[in-house]
Design a protein that fits this description.
The chain has 17 helices and 15 strands. By secondary structure, the chain is an alpha/beta fold. The protein folds into 2 domains: about 190 residues, Rossmann fold (3-Layer(aba) Sandwich), CATH 3.40.50; about 140 residues, Rossmann fold (3-Layer(aba) Sandwich). The strands form 4 sheets. It has a 7-stranded mixed β-sheet with strand order 3-2-1-6-7-14-15, sandwiched between helices. The longest helix is centred in the middle third of the chain and has 22 residues. The protein binds 6-O-phosphono-beta-D-fructofuranose. 6-O-phosphono-beta-D-fructofuranose binds next to strand 12.
């Protein structure tokens, strides 16, 4: 319409004038036909679309005539509006065009994304990958996977297309079909011979690799460390979408991470198993569980498994209280006790037990809390004491149905964030809903067990000793 206005053709103008002078009973169909014919005659290459010719006919028809001759289609059912109320049909599209112009150019369609699983593994990672790949495929996004965390984007190879058929049958499998690495920090990457390695910033290699492969968005499945790297890549011009992962459940950006439920289930099974052997030998059984500086695994499994003492990092313990609880139980006839201790737990006057200091850019390896407690308790209770360190068994094996479900929901939601180009965000569970949050929230203060929270209160209410 705008074009027609700008370059009015003499013949059409004349036709319009003629039509205006001589009102005719000719049906609009006829008018459409003749207008179309004229238009085609002007531009033989074009076949006048019906819509255009209908509008031309309407415009050309005199008001009176149009009223009488208006075809049913053009004036559907409704009585023709009174003159004053009649709105020109062309106004609506003009308004819409103005709105679109104000909204600016459409963002580029997301076509290719790359996903990787950073840090340590967590049960449910494969459910995430499966959910993400399947839904991205539906959304017409091609997915590529980098193997072994960032290694696949730093070293040659290790970068491959992931199609729905590549993620078939992986739902019940632990680990990650892409592999994980908590050594592959691109901002502090070991380069050189083993033993003589130097830590180098190779982040530009990652950026180049992504750009060379026309990757629109980098999708990171990881914990706080991986998300911190994601934020740095965002600053370097790589759009990032995050999916929170850790069995430790210590990310403030989400109420729950997948992996926790499986770890708690496995640890609960271990507590059940320790009960029978503890009872048979009248022993104190100490079980050291993972979780770093957060006590979610220990407290949850300890309550679910019926432990007598639970020591978590958030509540530094007094060993005398622990010994007292065990002695009391003995006096009441319970000849054994189960003590759960989180790897990050520490005595009131002590520090966290570590196996080794972390390399630059990495956390220290925790361990030894269980054996230290055994040494502290030795001689304070009338029992033999044995210590079990459950270790990586908590991270291995088939994910629980809860973790498969949460992983699937996270994967699907992350594909949607990609489609909508809502980058710089990570998916999150709030209550029972999947939402999204800024990446920064994953790297903020860790989410720890509240010492006066409901979970702690429930533990105390059923007589569990928390050491402080
Ligand atoms: O963060 C998950 C976690 O399993 C912690 O609970 C544990 O301290 C740590 O990772 C173990 O890491 P790695 O696999 O490097 O020994």
């Amino acid at each position: 319409m705008a074009n027609r206005k700008k370059t009015p053709s003499k013949s059409r103008k004349a036709a319009a004038k003629k039509a205006a002078k001589k009102p005719t009973r000719t049906s609009a169909k006829k008018a459409r036909g003749s207008a179309a014919k004229k238009q085609n005659a002007r531009d033989p290459k074009k076949t006048a679309p019906k819509k255009t010719s209908r509008k031309t006919a309407k415009k050309a028809a005199p008001k009176k005539g149009a009223k009488k001759a208006a075809p049913k289609k053009a004036a559907p059912k409704k009585a023709a509006p009174k003159k004053g109320n009649r709105k020109p049909a062309k106004r609506a599209p003009r308004k819409a065009a103005a709105t679109n112009a104000a909204a600016g150019p459409r963002p580029k369609k997301v076509k290719r994304v790359c996903i990787l699983t950073g840090g340590g593994d967590a049960p449910g990672l494969n459910a995430v990958l499966r959910g993400f790949v399947k839904h991205a495929h539906e959304l017409d996004i091609d997915v590529f996977g980098a193997e072994d965390g960032f290694t696949g984007l730093i070293e040659p190879g290790g970068f491959r297309r992931l199609r729905p058929m590549d993620v078939r049958g992986i739902l019940p499998r632990g680990g990650s079909v892409l592999g994980c690495s908590n050594r592959a920090n691109p901002f502090s990457y070991p380069v050189g011979e083993k033993g003589e390695e130097e830590l180098v910033d190779v982040s530009d290699r990652v950026v180049r690799r992504l750009k060379d492969n026309d990757i629109d968005i980098l999708v990171l499945v990881g914990g706080d460390g991986t998300m911190a790297m994601g934020m740095r890549f965002q600053e370097m011009g790589i759009p990032v979408v995050g999916i929170p992962k850790t069995i430790d459940n210590d990310l403030a950006a989400t109420d729950f991470t997948f992996g926790l439920d499986t770890a708690v289930t496995t640890a609960t099974w271990a507590i059940d198993a320790l009960h029978t052997t503890a009872e048979a030998h009248d022993r104190v059984m100490i079980l050291e569980l993972m979780g770093r500086y957060a006590g979610w695994i220990s407290l949850s499994a300890g309550i679910a498994g019926g432990a007598d003492v639970i020591l978590i990092p958030e509540i530094p313990y007094d060993v005398e209280r622990v010994a007292k609880k065990i002695r009391q139980r003995s006096e009441l006839g319970a000849t054994f006790s189960i003590v759960v201790v989180g790897e990050g737990a520490r005595p009131k006057e002590g520090t966290v037990s570590t196996i080794s200091e972390g390399r630059e850019g990495h956390l220290p390896r925790l361990g030894g809390a269980g054996h230290r407690l055994a040494a502290e308790l030795d001689g304070m209770v009338p029992h033999e004491i044995r210590t079990t360190v459950l270790g990586h068994i908590q991270r291995g094996g088939s994910p629980s149905s809860f973790d498969r479900l949460l992983g699937t929901r996270f994967g699907v939601a992350a594909a949607e964030l990609c489609k909508e180009r809502r980058t710089g965000r990570l998916v999150s569970l709030r209550g029972t809903s999947i939402v999204s949050a800024p990446l920064e929230e994953a790297t903020a203060e860790p989410k720890l067990v509240a010492p006066d929270g409901q979970l702690v209160k429930a533990a105390r209410a059923v007589g569990i000793e928390l050491g402080g």
